[in-house]
Batch of 2 targets.
Target 1
Amino acid sequence: MTHTWLVRAETGTDAAAVRGVDLAAFPTSEEADLVAALRADPGAWFGDLALVAEDARGVLVGHAVLTRCHIGAAPALALAPVAVLPDHQDQGVGTALVRAALAAAAERGEHHVVVLGHPSYYPRFGFFRASAYGIRVNFDVPDEALMALTLDPAHPLPSGTVRYAAPFGV
């Protein structure tokens, strides 16, 4: 069965539904609380880079967020979280969201994105192991879980430590 998802920028009326997606998709409220805190951080939050996916009935079934971070001194974006309602997982929602988020970031002139996630999922979007580029974080994570990509080949990935927005707490 082929599914079609409407992917669009989040609006102010989506916050409760986004929280519901996070609470359903993750075992704790940490991601939902993180999104709320990121929304309140004007240095990290970009409304056009907070995307939601709706099904054919207009029900919000997933979301993805890109927020400001830095790799060393270079501005970059952090992709987190990406969440899909459990009964809509493995149907292409996450793929549609990530592709749309990366395209939106490229359109606004961003150059670099980092993600801390499943090493078998994110390479399909062009992410590579960050350590191969000298990119690291200041907390313990499996090496293969931290990945990065450049959205513009004219701007190679910088090396350095990723500094996330304050709401990440790292």
Target 2
Amino acid sequence: MQTPALPDLAHTAAKPVHWLATAAAMAGVVALAGLLQPRTATATATAPEQRTTTRGGAPVPAPDPAAARFPLECGTVGTTVARHATGDLDGDGRPETVAVAHCDAGSGTPPAGVYVLTRTNGAAPRVVATLVDPADRTTVKELDVRDGAVAATLLGYSSPDVPRCCPDQEEQVSWRWQGNAFVRSAGDFARSA
């Protein structure tokens, strides 16, 4: 066995004091880096995705519902966007689109979903909230966005015996963004359609 000609290197036999000195030095570097942040790195800075206008000064367009993929299972018949409305729902200065979509049944009254669409950085519109699920078996007669709220008239059925072609109940509902979710305010199905 041959012994090395060089003495042991200090870093190959680190002691706890070496680890503590390294940790203290790293903590100092991190703390210093935190203090030397540029002025634009604050929470109030306007991020590019929060701009209300494009670089050319034109308003940011609302998401196009025709380009969205809705969470509907329609098989081969595809989907139809029956109605849509736009407005700034969450107060960020950028418009969202609310779309009423259903399967393209061709006839009858297919149940509809009401979806909120948004777009970030020019990407395709994406569904960020479902206000009415098609499983609720309702259709949407009217849809409007005003003053940051979504308003709709929903048509439904009083019992399973009512033919699906002919809803017999009507409900006025609205949704408003509060905190981190849409909160629904509604009447009841008291009025007949």
